[in-house]
Amino acid sequence: MNPMSGVNITHSPYACIACRNSKRRCDKTYPRCTLCTQRQILCDYPYRRKERTRQMANPEADESMPIGSNTPLFNTPTERLRPGRYGISDPNISDTLASRFLDPDFFYHLQLETPKVDIAIPKMVSDYVGTIVDIQNISNTYFDSIHTWMPILSKKQFSSNLPNYLTHRKSELCLLVICMKLSSSLTTTAKTVLYRTAKQFYFEMESSGILSVTVLQAGVLIAIYELGHAIYPAAFLSVGQCARYAAALEIEKSITSQILDKLPWNEVEEQRRVWWSIIILDR
């Protein structure tokens, strides 16, 4: 009981998602913790124990699922992953993304974070990606070919992040994998169905407001494919599009910015890899 307001205060057994991501000490006040209330940001708590147990009973959501499994990643023709309480049409997401883009200094001063957005994966994309074994084979082919002369992705980082992608960021993983497959494919026809599918899915991911290094890496792989097959002016436009997307992520500051000193070295290295690749392609 709050003696000032006379309102019963309940507490969650878990810290809220915003405090977990920011590594802040959460007071677990339900429905909104004190820190999120002060910063005027969305406060959401994880599922209750029964719901988490029921969710983990699904083998697709199990982070400990073996990489060598042949279990399909998608059961329906078009699956919306982790819909949660946020949708792409949610006005709160639109306002947050606009604030981050139009006034980034004020956004970071308040220590705000953009909501995690995931979109539906088309059936054609899921067919190209396949099972976990197919993802492993596609990545092996990529790292044995394209990676040897333009190491945009970190092989170690990709392998270590794969379980997390399979559980929480499947749409970004599918986009990256299909672009890895595209860039390492051997074909005599430039504008294949695989190329058109990857290009369309990248456009949908970008239009949804997702800002991540993974999406940017996929865009660079598309630009490499277009340059290699002389698909103009698409190649010229794709490189410029990647540069603008990187500027929105402030990756161009990864070379000199002191803010990145707070990030793990492997994340900084990943940002520098993709930024230098954009510079090389632009030249």
From TrEMBL:
<feature type="domain" description="Zn(2)-C6 fungal-type">
    <location>
        <begin position="15"/>
        <end position="45"/>
    </location>
</feature>
<dbReference type="GO" id="GO:0008270">
    <property type="term" value="F:zinc ion binding"/>
</dbReference>
<protein>
    <recommendedName>
        <fullName>Zn(2)-C6 fungal-type domain-containing protein</fullName>
    </recommendedName>
</protein>
<dbReference type="InterPro" id="IPR007219">
    <property type="entry name" value="XnlR_reg_dom"/>
</dbReference>
<keyword id="KW-0804">Transcription</keyword>
<feature type="compositionally biased region" description="Polar residues">
    <location>
        <begin position="67"/>
        <end position="76"/>
    </location>
</feature>
<keyword id="KW-0539">Nucleus</keyword>
<dbReference type="Pfam" id="PF04082">
    <property type="entry name" value="Fungal_trans"/>
</dbReference>
<dbReference type="GO" id="GO:0005634">
    <property type="term" value="C:nucleus"/>
</dbReference>
<dbReference type="Pfam" id="PF00172">
    <property type="entry name" value="Zn_clus"/>
</dbReference>
<feature type="region of interest" description="Disordered">
    <location>
        <begin position="57"/>
        <end position="76"/>
    </location>
</feature>
<dbReference type="GO" id="GO:0003677">
    <property type="term" value="F:DNA binding"/>
</dbReference>
<keyword id="KW-0479">Metal-binding</keyword>
<dbReference type="GO" id="GO:0006351">
    <property type="term" value="P:DNA-templated transcription"/>
</dbReference>
<dbReference type="InterPro" id="IPR001138">
    <property type="entry name" value="Zn2Cys6_DnaBD"/>
</dbReference>
<dbReference type="InterPro" id="IPR036864">
    <property type="entry name" value="Zn2-C6_fun-type_DNA-bd_sf"/>
</dbReference>
<dbReference type="GO" id="GO:0000981">
    <property type="term" value="F:DNA-binding transcription factor activity, RNA polymerase II-specific"/>
</dbReference>
<dbReference type="InterPro" id="IPR050815">
    <property type="entry name" value="TF_fung"/>
</dbReference>
<keyword id="KW-0805">Transcription regulation</keyword>
